[in-house]
Write a structure and sequence with these properties.
Length: 387
């Protein structure tokens, strides 16, 4: 018997393709890319697995109803007509998240209020009592999405955004989002088959996500809870089996993952977060200024980093990006170096031609993930041989 249903995995701009690949690799059916989203099918166990294992998803939502809607009264009637007793009870708390893109509806807060009224009235009219609203920590979070005259109702199975992995307790001024970090690593082709370096590691997010990819550790294994654990049909035994089977798929990693930062406070924070993620055996963090370093291996090196943007950190942009280029040229032959920046002007000062540029967003900032291939036959390598 096929118990599959449709779901939507939400993600960041530019990550749709890699999220679709993740879903296919996990075993999802009918995978279809959207805009900042990927549609797919699976059963309840797969919904648990998607939340646990996907690296580039922000939310997993389960659509439960869809209808055309003319105005607020029409919305109220159609929400009221739904069988909410399948999802809520009078002892359940709930919250509404509304997104509106329509000429007929302009205020998402009003849509949330109207939806809440319809659900509460349905219970009050049927049972004589009603479930309470809890905006911060609801048992069930309901998504209302209105596009023109189409209304889609869905349950949020994740709860808090899936970038909140649970391992990061200490952060710096400009920490990188965990989903963004994982997406950049996957876009860079990182697969754990060589040594890895983040030369400006901050609080260690790229290092941690790199180790989890290399060891095939489920992305959200350190997370305390998912929204679906509060649903009245939650199957704890099934979830435990999903967790156990996912952990059995981890693999050994036989290379080095190293991070540098010149700030002692950043090194301490990175080390704390790596301990929280139970990855101390795989990652080393050292206090070093990247511009004073040389490649630590004679084999191929994969480098991914998030340099300061100048928006939140005060640096001399021209000199800083010039130093990045010079350090890569002189000291890092045989390296694929990737970094993200929102300062597109600053890329001119690197002094190297990127072999790839991928458009991504860091929060609201349009950015580029750029790749520089540093060949073994660099001028420095040739000079050393001649000596």
């Amino acid at each position: 018997m096929n118990n599959n249903f449709k779901m939507v995995a939400k993600t960041m701009f530019g990550f749709e393709e890699i999220l679709a690949k993740e879903l296919r690799n996990l075993g999802a059916g009918n995978v279809e890319e959207g805009v900042r989203s990927v549609f797919f099918e699976g059963d309840t166990g797969f919904m648990y697995k998607a939340n646990l294992c996907l690296r580039t998803a922000i939310k997993i939502v389960k659509p439960i109803h869809s209808f055309r809607v003319r105005d607020e009264n029409d919305l109220y009637k159609k929400i009221y007509a739904m069988d909410w007793f399948d999802y809520l009870s009078t002892s359940t708390t709930f919250a509404i998240d509304a997104t509106v893109n329509s000429e007929n509806f302009t205020h998402s807060l009003y849509i949330s209020q109207k939806t809440k009224d319809a659900i509460v009235d349905k219970f009050r009219d049927t049972d004589g009592s009603r479930p309470d609203v809890d905006i911060k920590f609801p048992d069930v979070r309901i998504n209302i999405h209105i596009q023109n005259d189409q209304c889609n109702v869905a349950l949020d199975s994740s709860g808090r955004s899936l970038h909140q992995r649970g391992y990061r307790t200490a952060t710096n001024i400009a920490p990188i989002n965990e989903v963004l970090a994982a997406g950049l690593l996957l876009l860079s082709g990182w697969d754990g088959q060589c040594d890895f370096l983040d030369p400006m590691c901050g609080s260690g997010t790229l290092l941690t996500e790199a180790a989890m990819i290399a060891c095939n550790i489920p992305a959200n294994i350190n997370r305390k809870e998912f929204a679906f654990e509060k649903w009245h049909d939650f199957d704890a035994d099934l979830f435990e089996k999903i967790v156990d089977s996912s952990l059995k798929r981890t693999r050994e990693f036989n290379h080095k993952i190293i991070g540098y930062d010149k700030a002692p406070s950043a090194v301490r924070k990175a080390q704390d977060n790596i301990v929280n993620a139970n990855l101390s055996d795989y990652i080393t963090v050292e206090r070093k200024n990247f511009f004073d370093t040389e490649k630590f291996t004679d084999k191929h090196l994969h480098m991914v980093f998030n340099p300061p943007y100048g928006e939140r950190l005060d640096i001399e942009m021209e000199d800083f990006y010039s130093d990045i280029g010079n350090t890569l040229k002189r000291n890092y032959p045989g390296t694929d170096a990737w970094f993200i920046t929102s300062n597109l002007e600053a890329l001119k000062f690197v002094g190297l031609r990127p072999s790839r540029k991928i458009k991504v967003f860091n929060s609201h900032l349009e950015s580029r993930l750029v790749k520089y291939v540093m060949y073994e036959g660099s001028k420095k390598a040739k000079f050393n041989k001649e000596e």
